[in-house]
Design brief:
The chain has about 950 residues and is an alpha/beta fold. This is Vitamin B12-dependent ribonucleotide reductase.
Length: about 950
């Protein structure tokens, strides 16, 4: 449908009598969705990559052939209910979907949503079809709980409230613990608590919010989340005008300094280290609420007042720019605090008469009233791309209608952790529909993530999603009534609907695809406003953009939430165990859409398989490079590219966006300030940053388990390093080399029994200046070696340096070099480091690489079989050591010598990758804190 008449006809058909009429759009009449697909039995086994320990095993689980091994593993390990090896244990995707969908259909009938039993039946069949074909997924609590004997908790996002009383503070601890125990997270604003400089009625001074954060942090670290090994997820917010704001801003900076001191003293301070529990405030994301008044004072270099909580009088006046600088310095140093823009958030608030929006959930996408919750569902955008690479608007609209209906029905039967949360959720019925795979959709359709076309398509799809959701919400209000809190907020709610619709008209479209989507979105917003003016809306909120970590894997998505692709090469599990690395399937799809021939596409894909990027790929035009830019790698998307994308879609969301803007390690405090300030200017509701390697507690994947640390005395005396000189006569080896036609000689002098202690580097036809630089460099490295700097440290730092001359070498073990330095230190590693150390650094001899390829022959055969079942025809595998790489993060490191600053999964030991504001494990689906 693309005209207003068609849209009106559709709206008329879905309403019938006093209930909802549901038309069959996806499933085939007379055929159950399960009978339309091929099924197979699989054995699911999950091991910890670090220890080899089996952490899960279930045989004979049933899944569609089209579902990847990764997706079936995630579902079997995370969502199947019942004790392992018991008859009650679920063993088929059919059982899981039937359990959940059956409860939704029954609740819809019980609460008079449907015009007839036949409509209820079609609703269930259509919902089943969408889930079966991985076109959307509910959030994890739905799969955990719905249809089981457990409490029917369906919400993943919670916001609590704390007042300035001891009873309220202690109740906050209790409520948070209850939510953590159930596997979810919560956020809270502590700004009502008096500052540490304010007086108590007893005559003493208050403790201040930061002191109470310690107790809450300890509680979260003890309870963990859902009884699992991962940390609980929580958000702590403080308003910028609170007198304790500077102490709040500095909390994590001081703790990060403590971590560094303890690490240097020999304590185990990794994320899962045995000594890290002594560090405080590590279980929460911290955010500062910035007001427009404060940010205008920053802009004008003016003063800003910090106000007492008890009576509002000014306790201190500060220079706004200095405080903003302090916030940015802290975020630069340790990634906290993030920013929430208070006036922007509350300007888009549909229910202001019922209270302000003070806080968010842990990932900052759900923002609503205190003591409330939100259940989420996410669409797989790539699933709505037709074979001709156009977006299926009608199918997308139909899916949103079904999903929003189901999400609203769930509130009718849902259980909640506290009575205030239950009351507010039932009174305001906040929903959070969103999407995943935006990055893959943009790449497949030939749009750069940081491009006008990419932003326009993302904005129009987001507008269409939320406009359709609110139109359906208005239709549901006509059938079962508007939300309880609607009446006093009617004018405000309608004002926000008109703001959304107005923003849709302001989108600057670039191509035919986004123009078609925007036109349809305008019709949906018109219908939403027209029906809402008559009947109100069923839901105070409709949409957010969540991280979609675990459910993204369930849907076989390449990218999560609003994120771009992490890398162009992927980690893929094999049915028989083990893993392979493949090129992102969106690349050949995109190249075909761009008009490249089959042979050129094959050559480009092979280049990506070998290099991990498209730079200098044979036949690829430079103007198309931006389409294949990724979050990390050779051509990373600039930080402001992420901010601009967030700005494009923010006007079309009820809530906000879970996303961290990643900055390179060499980013400055000014760069952080720019992101935070531009976030306000561009209309974001929240933004967070992460500068690579700014945290100590992010363990790197070395591929081998380190021995346990021995007890270290805190009073250990640290002595200065001692230089160990080489003897007068020492063995040495000179190696001649050639890199891209440039010739040189490397001489290495060694200790008689203990490796290299000096190097000499001479280049052919070098002038006196270059000769002097090479001599100075050689002396610096030689002295470092003699003072005990490990050769592996030099290898890690100097390999993959890129500058001319670069290219082919005359060394059979190192066929390509990024520079002379890259060659020199790879040669040193091959000559003087042991196999395990070199393997961890990704450096091998030609013989070793050949041996590994031979060992992978069986895995390659497995992969050929998997390609047919997973739809990966024509996608070459990257030749990597079997068992050496277990995630896209590790793969990117192995290809390009980069370090993905991400934690290891505490369940299976695999290096995780970013997903929204947290991290997700590609092996087992665990997240670093977000539900």
């Amino acid at each position: 449908m693309g005209t207003q008449d068609q849209q009106e006809q559709q709206s008329a058909r879905v309403m019938s009598g006093s209930g909802l009429h549901v038309e069959r759009r996806f499933a085939t009449a007379g055929i159950h969705p399960y009978d339309e697909v091929a099924w197979e039995r699989r054995n699911v086994e999950q091991t910890n990559w670090k220890t080899g320990e089996t952490i899960f095993a279930q045989s004979g689980v049933e899944f569609p052939v089209a579902w990847s091994t990764n997706a079936s593993t995630i579902v079997a390990t995370k969502y199947f209910r019942g004790a392992l090896d018991s008859p009650a244990r679920e063993s088929s995707l059919k059982q899981l979907i039937d359990r959940v969908v059956g409860r939704y259909v029954a609740a819809g009938i019980e609460n008079n949503y449907f015009a007839s039993p036949a409509d209820a039946e079609v609703f269930g069949v259509e919902l089943t079809w969408l889930l079966l074909h991985q076109m959307f997924s509910f959030n994890s609590p739905v799969w955990f709980n719905v249809g089981t004997e457990s409490p029917q908790q369906v919400s993943a996002c919670f916001i609590l409230a704390v007042d300035d009383t001891m009873d309220s503070i202690l109740n906050w601890y209790r409520e948070e613990g209850t939510i953590f125990k159930g596997g979810s997270g919560a956020g809270v604003n502590l700004s009502r608590i008096r500052a540490s400089t304010e007086l108590l009625s007893s005559g003493g001074t208050a403790s201040g919010p930061v002191s109470f954060m310690r107790g809450a942090d300890a509680s979260a670290g003890t309870i963990k989340s859902g009884g699992a090994t991962r940390r609980a997820a929580k958000m702590v917010v403080l308003d910028v005008d609170h007198p304790d704001i500077r102490e709040f801003v500095e909390t994590k900076v001081r703790e990060e300094q403590k971590i560094r001191v303890l690490r240097d003293a020999g304590f185990d301070m990794d994320l899962d280290g045995q000594d890290v529990t002594s560090v405080q405030y590590q279980n929460a994301n911290n955010s500062v609420r910035l007001s427009d008044t404060f940010l205008r004072a920053v802009e004008q270099d003016g003063d800003f007042d910090l106000a007492a909580r008890a009576d509002g009088h000014t306790m201190e006046t500060v220079r706004a720019k200095e405080l903003f600088r302090q916030i940015s310095e802290a975020a630069w140093a340790c990634a906290d605090p993030g920013i929430q823009y208070d006036d922007t958030i509350n300007d888009w608030h549909t229910t202001p008469e019922s209270g302000r929006i003070n806080a968010s959930n842990p990932c900052s996408e759900y923002m609503s009233l205190d003591n409330s919750s939100c259940n989420l569902a996410s669409l797989n955008l790539l699933a709505f791309l037709r074979d001709d690479e156009t977006f299926d608007v009608d199918a997308f609209v139909a899916a949103v209608e079904l999903i929003i209906t189901a999400m609203d029905i769930s509130i009718c039967f849902a259980d909640f952790p506290t009575e205030p949360i239950a009351k507010n959720t039932r009174d305001f019925r906040q929903l959070g529909i969103g999407y995943a795979n935006l990055g893959a959709l943009l790449m497949a359709t030939g749009h750069g993530y940081d491009s006008d076309g990419g932003r326009a398509l993302a904005a129009t799809i987001t507008s269409l999603m939320t406009g359709t959701a609110y139109r359906r919400s208005a239709e549901l209000a006509e059938i079962v009534g508007a939300y309880e809190g609607y009446a006093p907020n009617a004018a405000a709610h309608e004002r926000i609907m008109r703001k959304h619709a107005s923003a849709n008209e302001e989108i600057q479209t670039v191509g035919s695809m986004d123009s078609i989507v925007r036109e349809r979105a305008g019709l949906e917003w018109g219908g939403a406003i027209e029906r809402g003016a008559l009947h109100g809306w069923r839901n105070a909120q409709a949409s957010v953009l969540a991280p979609t970590g675990t459910i993204g894997f369930m849907m076989d998505c390449d990218t999560t939430g609003i994120e771009p692709d992490f890398s162009l090469v992927k980690f893929k599990k094999l049915v028989g165990g083990g893993s392979m690395q493949i090129v992102n399937q969106a690349i050949p799809r995109s190249l075909k859409q761009l008009g490249y021939s089959g042979e050129t596409i094959e050559a480009i894909v092979e280049h990506v398989a070998a290099q991990g990027h498209v730079v200098d790929a044979p036949g690829l035009r430079e103007e198309h490079y931006e389409i294949f830019d990724t979050a990390m790698g050779k051509r990373p998307i600039a930080p402001m590219g992420h901010v601009r994308m967030m700005s494009a879609v923010q006007p079309f969301l009820s809530g906000a966006i879970s996303k961290t803007v990643n900055l390179p390690a060499d980013a400055t405090v000014e760069d952080v300030e720019d992101v935070y300030f531009q976030g306000w200017k561009l209309g974001l509701k929240a933004v967070a940053v992460y500068r690579d390697n700014c945290k100590v507690g992010q363990p790197l994947s070395s591929g081998k388990t380190e021995p346990a640390a021995t007890a270290v005395q805190p009073t250990e005396v640290r002595t200065a390093p001692v230089r160990r000189r080489l003897p007068k006569s020492r063995p040495s080896v000179t190696t001649s080399f050639e890199v891209a036609g440039a010739k040189g000689y490397l001489t290495v002098g060694s200790y008689p029994d203990d490796g290299p202690g000096e190097i000499f580097l001479r280049l052919g036809k070098q002038g006196s200046t270059l000769a002097g630089v090479m001599d100075a460099f050689s002396i610096a490295v030689s002295i470092g070696l003699q003072y005990g700097v490990p050769l592996s440290t030099y290898v890690e730092k100097f390999t993959n340096l890129r500058f001319e001359p670069a290219g082919l070498t005359d060394d059979r073990d190192i066929r390509m070099a990024q520079s002379i330095m890259d060659y020199i230190f790879r040669r040193l590693a091959l000559d003087h480091l042991d196999y395990d150390t070199r393997s961890a650094l990704g450096i091998s001899t030609a013989a070793e690489r050949t041996a590994r390829l031979d060992a992978e022959e069986f895995a390659q055969e497995q992969f050929a079989a998997v390609k047919a079942s997973d739809g990966a025809q024509g996608i070459p595998a990257v030749a990597e050591p079997a068992g050496a790489v277990h995630s896209s993060a590790q793969l990117l490191e192995s290809l390009q010598g980069l370090v993905a600053d991400a934690p290891l999964c505490l369940s299976c030991g695999v290096k995780m990758r970013p997903s929204g504001s947290c991290y997700v494990c590609e092996s087992c689906g665990s997240t670093s804190g977000c539900s």
